[in-house]
Amino acid sequence: MKKLKRSARLVEMTQYLLCRPHTLIPLTLFAERYASAKSSISEDLAIIKEAFEEEGLGELQTLAGAAGGVRYTPKISKAVSLAILNDIRQQLEQPERVLPGGYLYMSDMLGQPALVNEVGKMFATAFADKPLDVVMTVETKGIPLAYAAATLLNLPVVIVRRDNRVTEGSAVSINYVSGSTKRISTMSLGRRSLKEQSNVLIIDDFMRAGGTIQGMIDLLREFRATVQGVGVFVESAEVDEHLIEDYVSIAKLTGVDPKTKQTTVLPGSYFQLDLK
């Protein structure tokens, strides 16, 4: 690559780091890429690190030594997270979202790339320090959230199916009981989709009692996998007891009145975390 002016090099380096989160990048790679001395690259990285921290974009960690380098960890500030939550609350509390039976329409929100990416940043912040191999979700509405989080965590996505498909090859299937309807359903995961003893982050769009998430946890036992975290976009507080105790939610639905079409949304457990 031809030698760039410092301003252009800073822009290109920033973009390179943003596209490769949680990846250790040797300083020699940047030195060769920009035909610059390591000392100049180190000065550039110090500028980028300061800008990331001031703007709440994440952390830039430099590791010394022959095997060292620089690693970018995406994180979002609490102030920005609260602004995102405010947008989520305004959308969820729209009267026209209330469906017969007290259900809440959310599909259009999960189709908004900007919103989904911001929620993905919040999950990536909450689970940044966990040892993870994959992000898992169940089809279909949780898929955008899982990919958003996985992109920022630099992890592959594993999708649990509602039924076994020929294209998945041999699969493990289990029956689980929905926590809200008490209905017995089936979920399936291809054996090639997940390596045994993987560390897994589960992401779901909505949790009422937690039956679906508990089903995924039970399914993961068949792979001898470890659940390192559970992230939920919206949780319902209108249940006597959740089947899942350890989880991170972005928003909490505390009331849906089908008659008045009034909805009450509060901050989820994410905002109780001790995040830097």
From TrEMBL:
<dbReference type="InterPro" id="IPR036388">
    <property type="entry name" value="WH-like_DNA-bd_sf"/>
</dbReference>
<dbReference type="InterPro" id="IPR010078">
    <property type="entry name" value="PurR_Bsub"/>
</dbReference>
<dbReference type="GO" id="GO:0045982">
    <property type="term" value="P:negative regulation of purine nucleobase metabolic process"/>
</dbReference>
<dbReference type="GO" id="GO:0045892">
    <property type="term" value="P:negative regulation of DNA-templated transcription"/>
</dbReference>
<keyword id="KW-0238">DNA-binding</keyword>
<keyword id="KW-0805">Transcription regulation</keyword>
<dbReference type="InterPro" id="IPR050118">
    <property type="entry name" value="Pur/Pyrimidine_PRTase"/>
</dbReference>
<dbReference type="GO" id="GO:0003677">
    <property type="term" value="F:DNA binding"/>
</dbReference>
<dbReference type="Pfam" id="PF09182">
    <property type="entry name" value="PuR_N"/>
</dbReference>
<keyword id="KW-0804">Transcription</keyword>
<dbReference type="InterPro" id="IPR029057">
    <property type="entry name" value="PRTase-like"/>
</dbReference>
<dbReference type="InterPro" id="IPR015265">
    <property type="entry name" value="PuR_N"/>
</dbReference>
<feature type="domain" description="Bacterial purine repressor N-terminal">
    <location>
        <begin position="5"/>
        <end position="74"/>
    </location>
</feature>
<comment type="similarity">
    <text>Belongs to the purine/pyrimidine phosphoribosyltransferase family. PurR subfamily.</text>
</comment>
<feature type="domain" description="Phosphoribosyltransferase">
    <location>
        <begin position="111"/>
        <end position="249"/>
    </location>
</feature>
<dbReference type="InterPro" id="IPR000836">
    <property type="entry name" value="PRTase_dom"/>
</dbReference>
<dbReference type="InterPro" id="IPR036390">
    <property type="entry name" value="WH_DNA-bd_sf"/>
</dbReference>
<comment type="subunit">
    <text>Homodimer.</text>
</comment>
<dbReference type="Pfam" id="PF00156">
    <property type="entry name" value="Pribosyltran"/>
</dbReference>
<protein>
    <submittedName>
        <fullName>Pur operon repressor</fullName>
    </submittedName>
</protein>
